[in-house]
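Session log. Operator J.P. requested a structure for one protein chain; no other inputs attached. Running the standard single-chain path with C-alpha cell output.
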Amino acid sequence: MAKRKTKRKSTNTKHRKSQNINFKLINILLLIILALIIAIGILIYLIDNKKVEESKKDISKIEKKIKEDITKIQETSEDKLNKYVKNIEVKKDKFEEYTEDLYKEYIHEKTEDKTTNIIKEKKPDTKPKTEEITNIQTEEVSVFHKPLPIQTNKPKLAIVIDDVTTQYQINKINNIGYKTTMSILPPTSRNGSTIEMVNGLPFYMIHFPMEAKYFKGEEQGTLHIKDSYEKIEKRVAQIRDWYPNAQFTNNHTGSKFTQDTEAMDRLFKALTKYNFTFMDSRTTSKSKGKIMADKYNMPYIARNIFLDNEQEFNYIQNQLKKAISIAKKRGYAIAIGHPHDITIKVLRESKPLLKDLELIYVNQLPIL
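Structure written below.
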C-alpha cells in the first residue's frame, strides 16, 4: 500500500510538473505573441509615422513644385509679354521707318519751284471742296496684256499694300473686295520666296528695299547710297528676271537712299534700262524722286497718305478719309498701308466711304 501511495504521489508530482511546464510554455507563447503584437503595433505605428513624414515630404514637394510652376508661369508670362512687345517692335520695324515724314501728306501741285525743280508740298485744306473732276483720262489701260474696264470720270484712289511676303497676306488682301495694289518684297532667307506668289495676280508692284536713316533689321539686298551703278544695275536686273511682268516699283524704307541725288541717279538709270516705273513712298520729305523722274522722262508718282502709322481702327479710317478728300479735290490720290489685320479690316469695312470714287491699280493713275 505504501508503495502504491508513493507511486501515485510520484505520478501526481510528474503530472503537476508537466502542467507547470505547459503553463509556462503557454505563458511564454502568450508573451511572445504579445511581444509580436506590440512589435507589430510599433512597426505599424512607425510605418504610419513614416508614411505621414513621407506624406508631409510629398506635400512639401508638391507645394514647392506648385510654387516653382507659379514662378515659371509668371516668368513665362513676362517673357511672352516681353517677346510680344519685342515682336510688335520687330514687325513695326519690318514695315516702315515710322519717322515724322510718314505723317506728312504729299500733294502734287501744278506749280513748281523752278530753282530746285521740286514739287511744293502743301497740306490739303481742312475742308476740301468736292469740286467736279473733269479731264480725267478715260482710255483703256492694259495690265500684262489683259484689258481693264474703261475708267469713269470719278475721282481715283489707288491703295497700295506694302511688304507683302506670304500667300496668306495675298488671300486677305484679295478678300478686301475692291482693287488694291500689292507691293511684293523680293525673296530673302527671312521672308522666303515671293516669286511664285504673283502668278495670277492682275497687277502688282515690287517693294524695293533701300537704305534708311533710322531702321533696324534691314532686308537682304537693300540698296545703299555707296553702291556702285554696277551693283545697283545687277540688283535691278535680278528683280526683272524674278518678276518679268512687273512694271512698277516703290521704295521700302529708303529715307537715306532716296534723298541722295547720286544714288537715286544710279537707280533711275538702272530702272529705265529694265523698264521699271518708280513710285516714291515718300519716307523722307527730302526725296529726290521728282528730280530724277524729270531727268529720266518718267512720270512722278508719290504717295499722298500713309494709312497705318498707328494700328488703330479709327486712326486708319481717318487716314483713309484724308486720302478720299485728296482724291476728290485733286482727281486722284495714292494711299499706302500694310498687311496688318486691322488695316485689312478697316479697308474691308470702309466700302461705303468709297462709293463716290473709282478704286484703281497704280498703273491706272490719270497722270500715266
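Operator note: Helices lie at 2-95, 167-174, 229-242, 261-273, 289-295, 313-330, 341-349.
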